[in-house]
Amino acid sequence: MANHTDNGTVPPFYNTPTQPHKPPVDDRKRHGLSLITMVLGWVTLTLAMVGGAKLLWDILSDGLKLEGLTAKVISLGLTFLLGWIVSIVCIRTFGNLVLPLIINTYVFLTASGILVLYARVVYKLYMEVFNPDAHYLRYSVAIGIGFAVLVGLHLLIEDHDLRPFSIPFLIGGVMHLSGMVMHYVFMNGSQKNIGGDVYFFGLVMLISLLMLAHFGIFNLPRKIIAHFFAKNGHALQPGKQES
After folding, report:
1. Among 238, 133, 241, 123, which Cα is nearest to 175's?
2. What is the pTM of this model?
């Protein structure tokens, strides 16, 4: 049965051809910017992580000279900072869902690297080859930077929880205490480095307990980041302008 219209008769079951749906221009720009910032953030963070792994290797192999430490830390710090800024814009403004998965992997790798570094310190103390003149500063800086990177990556992802990562550090602390008992009580080892044992054990345990207790230490930077992107993030999107 035909349908009558103002322009004439239309055959039954005839559908007017429709144009294929195209996403709005702003959406295409948004997806493009999301992809570009994801690649830039990933490449820059990866460069910082690889450089940090090389620095960690130098520290573990005692091939790092203290006079070169400052330049290495500054160059890696600037690289990580740029990657962090690009990544947080990619995640918080453009809503990228892939980059957080990559960052979660980097969080795991960073925590693993800190544990390896802590194990190296315990080994040197146990074997009585710990050099207080060099190793206190060297390993303190490395562990501190490692935890700073861990927190920085943690802040990139909304609602990320660091508490599960504190468990391996607590287990490492128990193993450290076991080594101290074996070394000083059962083996009557030299007591000259007991201060190093106490110092590094206390340093790692303090940080891990703060992570486990979840006192909300990082709530303030989280709120600052969330407020900034809630207020200014729309200005970074295509076609959006601040009023």
Report:
1. 123
2. 0.78
